[in-house]
Design brief:
With about 425 residues, this protein is of the alpha+beta class. Helix content is about 15%, strand content about 50%.
Length: about 425
């Protein structure tokens, strides 16, 4: 879908350029970067900051490191454009996975803004700067919450915004329509999901030290590409008509992408005065698709400033709302030929593993410090402790021989330098 919006933007630029003199155009470049070193103490469990990136164990210099650049193009008082690219350790290394923003913006009047192209989804408190480490406290956005954000961090489409001063505060309401096709990593497998008919309604109200955010979205799953899942679905559909395993048809429909939609709602609150910085978000996903099951996630973070230092601590949690679907091995299987027994038993085990690997059930506590070295450079140190509940490691790359039905504890320490330029 991106090419359609690219052609649209090119056409708009052509129309505008014919009416704008060259000396009316201005282009400003800016950038941001984070250099990070981190260590995870479990060599059998891979950690990544979100679903888009490579999972790594032990020492890593690429886990949270990032380089980004942005061009702001001013055309006239009503028209401008923004292009932003980032380079991070993506699992799928192709252009579309590194282009974060590319939109044109029109302001018909002071309180209205219309955009078209690739834009941030505006579902989260960090939606406008999720990769700018200088702008937030932590070594990375809270893992249990923002890992899910990577599936819809940006979209290709259009949005309309209304903003105004209300009761000594600033209100912004936005309605968006579009599509997104993230290439994600689950374990050591890549998968591509296309979300079409994506609707987002969000509202932000800022008053004094307070920021309130509420958002809701709905999208339809129009395509799903994953070699392991596609193979599993084909196997389930092959065995379903024979009724050897009555549940096969149920799980085939559950894994298939057709006729599934995902609803997401989120609330965010931030308080920032001279000393205290408090931030919390909570999100709720409602889904009947087994690949992306329903879940609740959230975090709370508290920071306290002392001169150039900010000390912080936080808690985050993510948990699926539904229990694992119970898989039953049919008693009649024992009376079938040995080859059929073996093939069916193997299919049941693979199905059960696939169901469990999508489940997220984890907690995380962290403490750290952020040092404002200058108005362009900050240094951070952070220690995390993760508790991964049995069959709750959907955000982690857990070695199969380690077992997914037991609790895992992982410690992670990070040192980083972030700058803007």
């Amino acid at each position: 879908m991106l090419y359609k919006y690219t052609l649209f933007l090119a056409g708009v630029f052509a129309c505008i350029s014919s009416q704008v003199k060259a000396n009316d155009l201005s282009v400003e470049f800016s950038g941001f970067a984070t250099l990070s070193m981190s260590y995870s103490d479990d060599s059998d469990i891979g950690f990544s900051s979100n679903y888009l990136n490579e999972s790594e164990t032990g020492f890593s210099f690429s886990r949270d490191s990032i380089l980004g650049g942005q061009a702001n193009i001013t055309i006239n008082n009503n028209w401008d454009a923004v292009v932003q690219g980032i380079y991070q350790d993506r699992s799928a290394k192709y252009f579309n996975n590194f282009l974060e923003l590319a939109f044109i913006r029109y302001r018909p009047q002071r309180n209205w803004i219309i955009r078209a192209g690739r834009m941030n989804s505006d579902l989260f408190l960090l939606s406008e700067y999720p990769y700018v480490g200088y702008a937030y406290l932590w070594a990375r956005p809270p893992h249990a919450y923002y890992s899910f954000a990577s599936t819809a961090g940006h979209y290709d489409g259009v949005d309309v915004e209304y903003n105004n001063q209300i009761d000594d505060g600033f209100l912004r309401v936005k309605l968006a329509l579009g599509t997104t096709t993230p290439k994600l990593t689950a374990g050591d497998e890549q998968l591509t999901i296309t979300f079409d008919d994506l609707y987002i309604l969000s509202a932000v109200y800022i008053k004094d030290e307070w920021t309130f955010r509420a958002a809701t979205s709905k999208s339809d799953v129009s395509n799903f590409e994953s070699m392991p899942f596609n193979t599993l679905i084909d196997s389930l559909n092959t065995i379903a008509p024979s009724n050897i395993w009555p549940q096969a048809a149920h799980f085939a429909r559950g894994f298939e992408h057709q006729h599934h939609s995902i609803n997401y709602s989120a609330l965010g609150l931030a308080y920032d005065n001279a000393n205290w910085l408090i931030q919390a978000e909570a999100g709720k996903t409602k889904s009947d698709w087994m690949v992306v099951p329903s879940n609740n996630s959230g975090y709370v973070s508290v920071g306290y400033r002392v001169n150039e230092m900010t000390y912080f601590g936080g808690l985050s949690i993510a948990k699926n709302k539904k229990n694992t679907p119970e898989i039953v091995t049919p008693e009649s299987l024992a009376y079938l030929p040995e080859a059929v027994q073996y093939a069916t038993t193997e299919l049941i085990e693979v199905t059960e593993y696939a169901v469990k690997r999508t489940i997220v059930d984890q907690k995380n506590v962290n403490v750290g410090a952020k040092w404002y070295y200058s108005d362009k450079v900050v240094f951070k140190v952070q220690a995390d402790h993760f508790i991964i509940e049995p069959t709750g490691g959907g955000l982690w790359d857990i070695a199969p021989e380690l077992g997914i039905d037991v609790e895992h504890n992982v410690n992670l320490i990070s040192f980083s330098a972030s700058l803007v330029f």
